[in-house]
Design brief:
disordered N terminus; alpha+beta; 29 strands; 6% strand; 1891 residues; 77 helices; 50% helix
Length: 1891
């Protein structure tokens, strides 16, 4: 930095100036107040001087820079941080501005005077803003979110967008938007009620600010060092900018104070006197001088001169490093545009200088030179902008300059300054290393200035804005020109841009071009441009740089080594730099008054084209094997012609050139059409893929209307004005198929390989069809065009709304007719298409809303020509035809394979009538005749497609026949016409019936025709009948073309005959090596009509198949009911043509009848040589083989599909491959399993066990259940929060920790279940495999290097059969089904015996069929699967014991796994068992196998019989007190136990398989406990009075016989027992108020008891269903309890259901009820002695959980987006770059944010582990997409928000309003609950903990 230098030169007395400064610092406020008073006096000179002195001292840059450098001593070191001095200076400024008051109060005071008429909020890149097309006048209009939401835009066409370059809010600016769209704040007109600003408020500002800004400028001058030639100097620049950060921020804050302060700033910035006084550098202050010098150096080094230097622009070289501008004195003083920058000269090598010095005529040299090179700064604003550019547009400076824009005076001054610096901006941009950022910042500024028409007009008039822009663009492109190699490589004088240059490749030019397009959109500016001839000449000059760029040369030998990708740059450049300005200009040429403009453009365009043809030495033959897709001059010409005829009623001929020019004009566009056919015929394959890319881009929707459409239109214009024979022969010659058009069966093509002939012929005919039937520019209205485009796109495929908008070429200029989303678009769309709402397939793939063509569109509007024109991929044409065929089949209109339908065309505009002459020229008729003949004779290389096109052309000709020729006249073909041609006239109608008898053809000697004797009559036949041979005739095609060309060129000169052109004719002489051609004469004796009739026979495969329909029904001809559009195949087409021919002339009708009368002999079989036969056979065989293969493939595909449907349908398992594992079969046999790997079947045995393919996953779905059916809402304001206290997981956690506080740990762990969070869920696809097969399968996966979506090392794999994701194998327990049957037979043991059995069986630890001691394969596998199950979930979800590693933990975990799986199955069934039936998951259930594994492991831990809860349930214990005497904590009272957990413990402790009797016994015993718990809970819920009444009521009935089964007796007993303790003691009175005062009726009590018991009954029934394979009965909801009870054997079978059902009747006490109840209650009473509250809480168990749900989302996505995208993260308090929100619990997280990373886990991954045990569902706020995290993988799920057209908007690119799609959200929730994310979503990838 220059700080050191500055400090060294520092004035004479730095030290003295320090002291007073520090003294004053004591009391800045006082000083400020004193000065303000002094300045307020009428005579304020003294005050002013004092202030000046103070400011001089405070703000002198040397002082601050020295301070920054660390004082005088360290000055040499330079650099340093921002010093205290600068902060001091800022403090001073604030004090002085406030004039002694507080700065904040001052700000508030100024704000009060803000006439806030405009918003003007400035934003930088990535800000979210809105654009409303309904309210916008300028297309660039944008609003900040706040103004948008406060305005009323309902029903408008708006969208939200992320700003790319930054912008500013236009609210309140009526130049840019309509006032109806202003928001509430800016609707008030300004200046109405704002008081006048008091003078003294801003007085100080006026004195202080000029010094402050000057100080800033001095800093900028000091800090700038010219970068060395090679070293980029960004570092230095950034350092200076960092130092200045506080100063610029201070200025920015001032601008935010509102209008009053802005106007002061404007005064300061634009006042020229101030600037002069301060910056002239004349004072004695050395520092100021020095900074002025640096400023001059900076100017010079930028290649700019400062006028005072008295240098004549560039005549002498200024100092080194300035640009070398040579001005050569040409006559007429045309300035040359030489090198602009020295830096550019070093980049270029000398050889390329050639094109560089190309002279360009500009209107005057002085203007040009000054535009590029002179800058004189007259105000602070101008110099500030200069430095802003020098420093490459620092964001802060840009924001400051833009913040000032609401001030009108400033706006004008700034715009002029910007324009003045325009050339300098371009130079800086070209040199910049960060051109992208810089481009964005430039556009950020310019779009604010140039969008305003008034301002643009003013600047255009006063500052020559247009001249400046055009010149600057021209200069810019001049730096990258190369010599064109088109046509004449050696002598070409044309230069084109080099697309490989960074300037084009990186799109560096776009800021300038976009500004240009922007100002051309204003009518007043565009008119000036179109009127200024000098500008038009310059502009055409600029366009010609792009004419012929990116030339492709066809590689003929080997493949090109390096495929250049520059073509994209070329297309982008033509679109942006040439086409878009063109559309901008065209949009102002819409009315008749603007004819003059069109004439100007056309005139200079033609001149430029003429220059171009001269420069490339073009005569009439294009160079072979070359093509360029870029002809912007041709396209300018074409589009202005089109506009002239369509809108301005100009006479076309008045703007067309002579014939010779037309011939030249058509060559290059025609060359492109031929090259397209060549590229699609794979003739350019050696040029690599990029040439295909070019061919596609040329027709692609964004480019087609600026490229292929104008080209075809230009060819149509040429065709309508040139000789038709010449045009047609040119086409066939360009497409290289002239030699093919011979009657002979063999021919030689000198320019084309045989394999390409067919596709090139198809290409030529297709091109002719398009040329003759396309009406885009020939008379269609805009709405018709839109409709045709839309129909074409919809016919190819169903489309979404946005892709349609994208595919339909709109005029690229936004002000033109079709704006996306405009009314015409929507109305046309609804007219031609039906909306198909988004559908959901069971497999989970989600469709978007699509539009599909209406039936009548297929019927009447399907236009194959338009489809062919608009397809980028050839397959789309086929797709359209397939859809058309399907429609015809479906609607029964045509069963077979139809041909592309013939469509009536829009009538031609009269100016283009000449186009139809092409259809009525002999050359075309000869070609059609020849092709019909060849097809009839089965010659090679012809296809159905060729025939189709030939018939199409004939039909077109008949539709458009010239009316004037009457039949009679035509039949007398004048003799003078006959001597040289096949046909008498040129009218197709009459030529169709003309018979051609003999044709002389030239054929290779080997051809079969030669062997034939020529007919004897030949010699006698007059020449009239014996016509020229086909080839001769076609050679005359070429010769004819030459002749016509000569005629035209030499019309004026007499020596037409002397012109000889050997060069061209030599091309057509056959090469010597080819076999000799001899002449043969063929007897033809056919006319087009007869050929057509024979074709009809051939196509239908029957003789005499054609019968003229009018013979039966003469009406047909009188009232021709030829449908406008008829569907059918070739036969129908031929019939249609014959009918039209007959209609048009009586002669034809007669001849058709004659031909049909002669019973046609069969077509003579063509003589086929052996060799030909061979090739034909081969072809046929190949064709057959191909068909066979297709058939096989199709069959295979359908098989595969049906398999996929059965195997993969996760949601409809009914169709699944049945794998009934658990069904009991009557025969005595073991269950047989099929191994899906080795395919063998057999039982599972101990040494070779079989296993089920399973997926183990941790799940927290159960923990998300709440007790309300309403799902929680996602918070969308600060007030809404979600608290997880009421979730199932939280409640269970609280209960466990309560128990652990007061009771013995080991007993607590038996009293509850865990696994609500992080429980392990096991699911299977139902397929089995041998475990050893599985191991080898895993090995092979491990060695397989293919990237899989899963990690084999973690044991993951996909099922070998159905490809479902899995990660473990669950061994199947060996055993025969017979056991099941035996075990299920009821034994007649009494309940007491059964209870004893149960106790004994539980006591025998090892009693298990597989002895653990001898390690078998089976037991090893069981152990390993148990290890897998444990590792599936995190440690924190397994360890709940206070003593880590205690066996109780494992015990608890194992039975909880069983519980988790049962509970989840219950949820999948909808939370109850009413539906009954075999389980929906029945075929896929693995609970049976899981139970075996768990039981095996549970039995390793025996519960000490002392503590076995079974005892407490079934025995009365006498010595109660001994237990309490112990020191340790008591055990959990049995009434606090969770009954379902007890059930699982009891069952799993029993030896498997279980006896049904034992099972029922356990259930009965547990039900008594459950019922007692229900009664106790009920007793707490009701009030004191209720309790006492029941207590007495029940006591009366206590001794009746049914007492133990009546709930009121039991309830009263429970109450009386419990009231012995302190349980019912209320604490104070407030409790009473809380208890709900409902009176309990017997019905409500019964309901409460049933609801309390139901969950247990459901789980038990499920368990019974799985263990014993019994079906579940279905029932109504209200009878669920009784049905399940009887199913479980709790209800006696003889139970009658007349009287209302009573749950107590299910009780079956094994011990006298009252004794055992009192024993249970005693435990509670002893606990409640100390802890009444806790005792109460533990008794009331909430067991009625509702189904889990995801959060409820708001209807409109915008509410989510607005709240979350600016929300700060609670962890790192920043606004995240990628915010996301969890849809399970609503937590807000930073996706991928490094800020919230913990031990290498990013926040989303971390949250997915804590919230969902590894499963996370996140909504990405900025993308509207949902992302799923499952363990170590993740996938993008899709979006649940769709727009009005049923489409997703990923990344919010379109920014349309999005609405929740309930069905999709349901699908998502379903997949979450059923744990099927892994199976349904296909695209998974590892996230490496980085999300």
């Amino acid at each position: 930095m220059a700080a050191a230098a500055a400090a060294a030169v520092g004035g004479p007395q730095p030290p003295q100036s320090e002291l007073p400064a520090s003294g004053l610092a004591q009391d800045k406020a006082a000083t400020a107040a004193h000065l303000k008073a002094a300045l307020s006096r009428p005579d304020n000179r003294a005050g002013a001087e004092e202030l000046q002195a103070l400011l001089e001292r405070v703000l002198s840059p040397e002082r601050s820079l020295a301070a920054a450098a660390g004082g005088e001593e360290a000055a040499a070191a330079g650099g340093g941080g921002p010093g205290a001095a600068e902060e001091e200076a800022l403090e001073w400024c604030k004090c002085l501005l406030a004039g002694g008051g507080g700065y904040d109060e001052f700000c508030a005071a100024v704000r009060a005077y803000d006439p806030a008429a405009l918003c003007g909020l400035v934003w930088t890149a990535n800000f979210v803003a809105y654009r409303c097309r309904t309210c916008g006048i300028s297309p660039c209009m944008s609003l900040c979110a706040e103004c948008f939401h406060q305005g009323d835009h309902t029903g408008h066409d708006f969208n939200m967008f992320r700003s790319q370059a930054g912008g500013a809010c236009d609210c309140g600016d009526s130049n840019v938007m309509r006032e109806s769209g202003f928001c509430k704040r800016h609707q008030i007109k300004s200046n109405s009620n704002i008081p006048c600003v008091p003078k003294d408020l801003l007085m100080m500002s006026e004195f202080v600010l000029p010094r402050f800004i000057f100080c800033l400028i001095q800093y900028l001058r000091e800090g700038y060092n010219e970068p060395a030639a090679d070293v980029p100097s960004e570092k230095d620049l950034n350092r200076v900018l960092q130092l200045l950060e506080p100063q610029i921020s201070f200025l920015e804050d001032l601008t935010k104070m509102g209008g009053a302060m802005r106007s002061v700033l404007t005064q300061v910035l634009t006042n020229q006197q101030n600037y002069k006084d301060l910056t002239s550098g004349l004072g004695e202050n050395a520092c100021a001088k020095k900074s002025h010098e640096k400023y001059l150096i900076a100017l010079k080094s930028s290649g700019l001169t400062y006028p005072e230097d008295k240098l004549v622009c560039g005549l002498q070289e200024p100092s080194a490093g300035s640009s070398t501008l040579a001005v050569q004195g040409f006559v007429g003083a045309t300035g040359t545009l030489g090198q602009v920058d020295s830096s550019d000269e070093e980049d270029q090598d000398g050889s390329q200088g050639l094109g560089k010095r190309k002279r360009v005529k500009l209107s005057s040299s002085t203007k040009d030179q000054s535009i590029m090179d002179v800058l004189k700064h007259k105000s602070f604003l101008e110099e500030l902008l200069f430095w802003t550019i020098k420093y490459e547009f620092p964001q802060k400076m840009v924001t400051f300059l833009l913040n000032m824009l609401p001030d009108q005076e400033y706006k004008v001054a700034f715009t002029k300054t910007f324009v003045q610096h325009y050339a300098f901006i371009m130079k800086t941009l070209k040199k910049s290393h960060e051109s992208d950022t810089m481009s964005n910042r430039i556009v950020h500024i310019s779009v604010q200035l140039f969008s305003n028409e008034e301002l643009a007009r003013q600047v255009t008039e006063e500052c020559q804005l247009l001249d400046i822009m055009v010149t600057v663009l021209l200069y810019m492109m001049e730096s990258c020109l190369i010599k064109s190699e088109l046509q004449d490589e050696e002598n070409s004088l044309h230069v084109v841009v080099n697309c490989g240059e960074a300037l084009l490749k990186n799109n560096t030019y776009w800021p300038l071009v976009s500004d240009f397009i922007n100002i051309l959109s204003h009518q007043s500016v565009a008119k000036r441009f179109l009127e200024d001839h000098g500008l038009l000449v310059t502009w055409m000059n600029f366009v010609s740089f792009f004419q012929g760029m990116n030339l492709n040369k066809r590689e003929l030998n080997e493949h090109v080594e390096f495929e250049s990708q520059t073509y994209y740059a070329a297309f982008a450049a033509e679109l942006e730099a040439c086409a878009q300005p063109m559309w901008g200009l065209l949009s102002h040429c819409k009315v008749r008054e603007t004819q003059e403009y069109t004439r100007n453009v056309v005139r200079y365009c033609l001149e430029a084209l003429q220059d171009w043809f001269d420069a490339i030495n073009f005569v009439d033959e294009p160079a072979p094997n070359q093509v360029t897709f870029h002809l912007p001059l041709h396209r300018y010409y074409a589009m202005f012609l089109s506009k002239a005829v369509k809108c301005q009623e100009l006479d076309l001929d008045s703007v067309l050139p002579d014939q010779e020019m037309l011939m030249k004009l058509m060559i290059h566009p025609l060359q492109i059409q031929a090259s397209l056919a060549e590229i699609h015929s794979n003739m350019w394959v050696r040029n690599g893929l990029q040439i295909k890319g070019q061919a596609m881009t040329y027709v692609q929707s964004h480019f087609c209307n600026s490229m292929i459409d104008p080209d075809i239109y230009l060819l149509q214009v040429c065709a309508s004005r040139l000789d038709p024979d010449y045009f047609i022969s040119s086409v066939f010659e360009r497409f290289k198929v002239v030699d093919l058009l011979t009657m002979a069966s063999q021919h030689q093509n000198t320019v084309l390989d045989a394999e390409h002939e067919r596709s090139m012929l198809e290409g030529a005919l297709t091109f002719l069809v398009i040329l003759l039937s396309l009406r885009l520019h020939l008379g269609m209205s805009d709405d018709e065009i839109l409709r045709a485009e839309m129909v074409a796109q919809l016919c190819m495929n169903d489309r979404t709304h946005s892709s349609l908008l994208d595919l339909i070429p709109e005029n690229p200029n936004p002000k033109s007719g079709i704006i996306p989303g405009s009314y015409s678009f929507e109305s046309v769309l609804s007219a031609v298409a039906d909306f198909k709402a988004p559908v959901f397939e069971p497999g989970g793939s989600m469709q978007q809303g699509m539009y599909t063509p209406k039936a009548e569109v297929w019927d009447q509007e399907f236009d194959p020509v338009m489809v062919i024109l608009r397809t980028v991929y050839r397959r789309d044409v086929q797709s359209a035809m397939d859809r058309y065929t399907a429609f015809l089949k479906q609607s029964g209109k045509f069963p077979g394979n139809p041909w592309p339908p013939y469509k009536k065309r829009t009538p031609l505009h009269p100016s283009y009538k000449g186009l139809m002459r092409l259809l009525h020229c002999k050359t075309l008729h000869i070609v059609l005749f020849t092709l019909l003949y060849k097809i009839l004779m089965d010659h090679q290389n012809l296809s159905e497609h060729v025939l189709c096109m030939v018939l199409y052309l004939i039909e077109l000709g008949l539709e458009n026949s010239p009316e004037e020729e009457s039949d009679e006249e035509a039949s007398v073909g004048g003799p003078e016409r006959c001597h040289d041609s096949w046909f008498p006239g040129s009218n197709l109608v009459s030529n169709m019936r003309h018979f051609i008898n003999y044709v002389r053809v030239r054929v290779p000697e080997t051809a079969p025709e030669v062997k034939r004797d020529s007919p004897a009559s030949t010699s006698s036949d007059s020449l009239g009948s014996l016509q020229h041979s086909g080839t001769a005739q076609v050679f005359s095609l070429v010769a004819e073309r030459r002749k016509k060309f000569q005629e035209i060129i030499n019309r004026s000169s007499s020596e037409a005959n002397q012109v000889v052109r050997p060069k061209t004719s030599s091309k057509w002489s056959a090469p010597g090596s080819a076999p000799q051609l001899t002449t043969a004469i063929l007897e033809i004796k056919e006319s087009i009509l007869s050929l057509l009739i024979k074709l009809h026979h051939k196509l239908s495969g029957k003789q005499n198949s054609y019968y003229p329909p009018w013979l039966d029904d003469i009406e047909i001809l009188i009232q021709p009911e030829i449908p406008k559009f008829s569907h059918g195949d070739g036969i129908a087409a031929v019939e249609r043509i014959l009918q039209k021919a007959a209609l048009q002339s009586r002669m034809n009708k007669r001849i058709i009848e004659e031909i049909c009368r002669k019973v046609t002999p069969p077509v003579p079989p063509k003589k086929i040589t052996a060799a030909e036969k061979k090739t034909l056979d081969k072809e046929e065989r190949r064709q057959k083989a191909r068909e066979r293969q297709q058939k096989l493939l199709a069959e295979f595909a359908s098989r595969q599909k049906s398999f996929m449907e059965t195997a993969m349908d996760v949601d409809s398992p009914e169709t699944d491959i049945p794998m009934e594992i658990t069904t009991a079969e009557p025969q005595v046999s073991e269950t047989v399993y099929d191994c899906v790997i080795c395919g063998q079947s057999g039982p599972s045995s101990e040494d070779r066990p079989t296993g089920l393919v399973v997926l183990l996953q941790a799940s927290s779905v159960l923990g998300q259940c709440r007790d309300s059916t309403e799902p929680k809402k996602l918070p969308i304001t600060e007030e809404e929060q979600i608290y997880p206290w009421d979730t199932c997981a939280a409640v269970h956690d609280v209960r466990l920790s309560l128990l652990q506080r007061y009771f013995k740990d080991s007993s607590c762990l038996l009293a509850v279940s865990i696994g609500w969070e992080g429980g392990v869920y096991v699911q299977t696809c139902g397929h089995t495999l041998h475990i050893d097969c599985h191991k080898s399968y895993m090995e092979s996966l491990r060695n397989d290097q293919v990237l899989q979506g899963f990690s084999v090392d973690k044991g993951e794999f996909t099922c070998p059969l159905c490809r479902q994701f899995a990660n473990s194998v669950l061994p199947c327990y060996p055993g025969s089904n017979v056991e099941n049957n035996l075990w299920q037979r009821p034994s007649n043991k009494s309940v007491q015996d059964l209870i004893k059995d149960v106790e004994e069986l539980q006591g025998r630890p090892g009693a298990f069929p597989v002895s653990i001691s001898s390690e078998t394969n089976l037991s090893k596998e069981m152990e390993s699967v148990m290890k897998d199950i444990k590792n599936t979930t995190q440690k924190k979800y397994r360890d709940y014991s206070k003593t880590p590693g205690s066996p109780d933990n494992d015990f608890l975990f194992m039975y909880s796994v069983a519980r988790t799986n049962l509970e989840l199955e219950l949820i999948h069934r909808g939370g109850n068992l009413c539906s009954g039936g075999a389980s929906t998951a029945g075929k896929r259930s693995c609970l049976n196998q899981l139970f075996h594994v768990l039981a095996l492991h549970m039995r390793l831990y025996s519960i000490d019989s002392e503590y076995n809860p079974w005892r407490k349930l079934t025995r009365l214990i006498e010595e109660m007190n001994s237990q309490l005497g112990n020191e340790e904590q008591p055990e959990v009272p049995i009434l606090y136990h969770d009954v379902t957990s007890l059930l699982l413990i009891q069952i799993l402790m029993m030896p498997q398989p279980l006896h049904k009797d034992h099972f029922t016994c356990i259930v009965k015993v547990l039900f008594t406990l459950l019922y007692t718990q229900a009664l106790a809970a009920l007793s707490i819920k009701c009030s004191e009075e209720d309790r006492s009444t029941w207590k007495h009521m029940g006591a009366l009935k206590k001794n009746t016989c049914e007492a133990e089964k009546s709930y009121d007796v039991l309830l009263s007993f429970v109450i009386s027992e419990l009231s012995k303790g302190k349980l019912y003691h209320e604490e104070g009175n407030q409790e009473c108020a809380m208890v709900n005062p409902i009176a309990w009726s017997p019905e409500s009590m019964e309901k409460y008891l049933q609801d309390f018991c139901l969950p247990f009954l459901r789980i038990t029934s499920l368990l019974q269903h799985h263990l014993f394979g019994e079906d579940l009965p279905s029932c109504q909801e209200e009878e669920e309890f009784s049905v399940l009870a009887s199913c479980l054997g709790l209800l006696p079978t003889f139970y009658q259901t007349e009287h209302p059902f009573i749950s107590a009747s299910c009780l079956d006490w094994s011990v006298p009820a009252f004794d055992i109840i009192s024993q249970w209650c005693l435990e509670i009473n002893s606990f409640t002695e100390q802890h009444t509250e806790q005792g109460k809480a533990l008794l009331i168990q909430e067991s009625r959980w509702k189904l889990p749900h995801l959060l409820q989302l708001p209807e409109n996505y915008n509410t989510i987006f607005q709240y979350y995208h600016r929300k700060t993260c609670s962890v790192c308090t920043k606004v995240p770059k990628d915010p996301a929100v969890c849809l399970v619990c609503g937590t807000f997280v930073c996706l991928k944010g490094l800020c919230c990373k913990q031990q290498s886990y990013c926040e989303c991954v971390l949250h997915s582990q804590n919230c969902g045990a590894g499963t996370g569902i996140f909504l990405l706020i900025n993308a509207s997409v949902i992302i799923i995290i499952r363990g170590h993988r993740f996938c993008l799920w899709g979006s649940v928000y769709l727009d009005a057209h049923g489409e997703e908007d990923r990344d919010l690119r379109r920014g349309k309003p999005l609405y929740i799609c309930k069905e999709r959200y349901k699908v998502l929730e379903q997949q979450w609950i059923s744990h099927t994310f892994d199976h349904i979503n296909k695209r998974w990838g590892p996230h490496y903990n980085g999300l």
